[in-house]
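Lecture 7 notes: from sequence to structure.
We start with the chain below.
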Amino acid sequence: MQRTPQSLLLWMTFIMSLVFSVWQVLLNNFVIERAAFTGAEIGILQSLREVPGFLAFTAIFVLLVLKEQSFALISLAVLSIGVAISGFFPSAMGLYLTTILMSVGFHYFETINQSLTLQWVDKQDTAGFLGKAMAWKAAAALTGYASIWLIMTWLKFDYVYMYAFIGLLGLFMVAVLTVYFPKFPEGEPQHKKIILRKKYWLYYLLTFFSGARRQIFMVFAGFMMVEKLGYSVSQITALFLINYVVNLLFAPALGRFIGRIGERRALTIEYIGLIIVFVSYAFVTHPYIAAGLYVIDHLLFAMAIAIKTYFQKIADKQDIAATMSVSFTINHIAAVVIPALLGLLWLYSPKMVFFIGAGLALCSLILARNIPLMPTQNHRVCWPLTPTKAHSNAQ
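Predicted structure tokens for the same chain:
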């Protein structure tokens, strides 16, 4: 384990994925079996889970006190504690509160992790590194699923032991990283204030629609598997296992592929694929076909790293930390509202939920076609909001 910034990023990513993936894969079965959740309650829980993401812009104020590296490690510790205590509160209010605690750590970590990645990794290497990080996420998730099989399927222990074990393991690993790695320089001094720049408008919109669309996948695709198709904990775990094996095998190559074809083409492929998948969700009745759609869906979402590499290419270096905080809030504007509203709609028409997802993917596709083939700080969009003389001459 090398003492480099890139190695620290990968290990922090591993811990996040290990802890969060276990929480995520057990959630639908846990809330249905122990708390008698319906679509309405799961929608409220997922909306509450996204509130800390909506407030991610406050990370920039925490950075007035903490360095980004320390903040990331503390956030991972909070995430681990939130997951460790989840099994002790099998009620609606208990699950809402433990979810919020877990989510605070998760969203602050994701904000700072993205900022440090764009600062510590060279532009030409970012797509490949993000693909590698996705493979590490997959390896961590596989480790988590193996622990579920060992503790819940083989040893027949309850949810409370599973949550406690994985949360405490994550907390121990955070302590090891804190001691093992030195404090690394953060590169270009970052603005310590909220920044919302007109020149990043396309990045903001892509981030907004990505967050809205992602919620439908995360909340309702998995919930459909349990409620409509009757998946058990073992079957859901197996589905997630397949997902992450695919990511482990293909994510590094996918990152390099995005680096070769560029962000515009990569996102076009993603959004066309997602439109097809969401429409298919609305009509699927066979569990194996649904599982295939879920795996394809998950793999397509991996191509969203192109949004991050696009921003890295067009951004001023000192804007990265502040913009990551703001963009995480933008990503979660719809996320706070959509799960609760669509959870109510789910009670009447699950199909309409997935049709809305297809519509959001179509909006993202239109926006993606506005990304230049070779984006730079001087060439951020193909169709500017206010055409400049230089742009007009270039056309």
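Points to note: Residues 389-395 have pLDDT under 50 and may be disordered. The chain has 16 helices and no strands.
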